Amino acid sequence: MGSICGFTVVTGGAARLVFGYDSYGNTCGRRNQQIEGVWLSGLDHTDRKFVFFLDPCNIDIVQRRIRSMALCVSLCPTEELKTYQDLKRFAMLNGSELCSYELAGHKYPSLPDRFSKCPKLPVPPSKPLPVFNRCTPLDVSCYSKFAEAMVTFVSDDNSLHRLISSVAASKELIIGLCFLALVLSMILMMIIRYISAVLIWILTSLVVLGSLAGTSVLWWLYIDHRLSGNDTLTKTRKDPREEADWFLFPNQILWFQVILLLLMLFMRKRVALTIALFHVAGKVFIHLPLLTLQPFVTFLALLLFWIYWILVLLFLGTTGNPVQNEETGLTEFRLTGHLRYLTWYHAVGLVWITEFILACQQMTVAGAVVTYYFTRDKNRLPVTPILSSVLRLVRYHLGTVAKGSFIITLVKIPRLILMYIHNQLKGKENAFARCLLKTCICCLWCLEKCLNYLNQNAYAATAINSTSFCTSARDAFVILVENALRVATINAVGDFVLFLGKILIVTSTAFAGVMLLNYQRDYAEWLLPLAIVCLFSFLVAHCFLSIFEIVVDVLFLCFAIDTKYNDGTPGKEFFMDKALMVNRSGLLLLATPTCFHL
């Protein structure tokens, strides 16, 4: 992507975007070279630094551009010009000619070409944009015909008008509640180790009691049906298939209940392991408080990259060879030949680099957690484990995260393409094609999720052994397969607990919002402000608790490796926390050797 940016800068696309260019291919504010076959090209526009459109309101929404001749001028008109005499006077006083270059300013009122090569009257007052040097009309009513439908809809719909007014009136409160959600998310990451056990056992109790209650009700209905059937047996003849169904259904539920209880009894120690992992994860955040800043750092990196990506995309829009528009006769710059594929390459880069930044976050967190876990004396931890993890990432493991993120990109892009095709063909394809597309999209989504989980564990394995991506992925896969039941338990129970944590943050923020909005009687509508607050609080909670989830997964991988190669005897002491040591006896580990070494 850096090469694309360099290409746009070298070929002048960046300069044309920033400084602007006229309809003859000349860049404003610069001395230009003659373009073969283009009249009025190669002019010296050193003193003409602003782009002026003859009809700035003629906007083509489909093509996303202004359908008007553009000229380079030395000054934007600051007052309305109603006649051609005003155009002449403006040109004479300011030296800024607003008509085409071949027309003399003192002859504007008498020239026959003034209707096609001079600005549309009246010329609205305008001022240049701070960076991009385009003369922009001060009166936004210039664009009223494009906003007329929306304005009419808003003004006619009283409910929508009240909603928008409520958001505008409560913007300070919305910002405050969003900040509250941010604080609650950070606090929850610290205290979740104390409430995870309560949440998990409440969930377990509800599942057991709910299944028992459901089974009891079904058997009660079956017995009641049999008793009522005996009373009417002499009057009507019962269908034997109906009798079999009444008996079969509660009987199947009973067997399901027995299997569920046995499964929960068998998995109780693995549930206890999940609680212990949550407890240790809370300790990790106490010893490494800078982990709570990872969502901010990642968001900032993503934001900067997305801004850069959009900027380069705009550069590409003004890069290429000069081409004359057959409809308007004006000169435009377009990518031709193989250069047309640069836009697609740029789009792939968006997905890949985004995944790369997220992978860097996972590797950074994994490196810090591995350092914490395999340091026996927690008081002798490095001063900045997270900074050390970042330095190791930059020095040794950039190729690992690049390869892992590229694999995700190879799966994500086909899924996005299929989703685009599905949306384009909505209502046109037959049932079979629709089902096939949805099946492919679903399969690719599942594959992407599995690869994401494997990549995350591969990064943790890399942080432990400093091996390559493929080797780390293989070793992590072996460990996960050996501990499949525990992995399933931790993911199922842990994800549910984290989901409850997200719901807790959303409901707490929403409750605070209801109380504050109820106190502020000026707000006529609460729906939209509360919806915005709830959405933002859920996104914030998801970002922060995703870091907690990564910490739990890395701790589990470290725990599995620790118990595999250490048994607590002299020379093979465990690295694990005491909370995990209590649960190690209930965890069966296979003795298949791998290349992990401690």
From TrEMBL:
Main location: membrane
Family matches, as Pfam families: Choline_transpo
Top-level taxon: Eukaryota
Molecular-function annotations in GO: transmembrane transporter activity
Topology versus the membrane: Multi-pass membrane protein
Compartments it resides in: Cell membrane; Membrane
Source organism of the structure: Takifugu rubripes (Japanese pufferfish)
Annotated GO CC locations: plasma membrane
Record family assignment: Belongs to the CTL (choline transporter-like) family.
UniProt KW keywords: Membrane, Transmembrane, Transmembrane helix
Function: Choline transporter.
Transmembrane segments: 173-192, 199-222, 246-266, 271-290, 296-316, 344-374, 496-520, 526-559
Protein name: Choline transporter-like protein
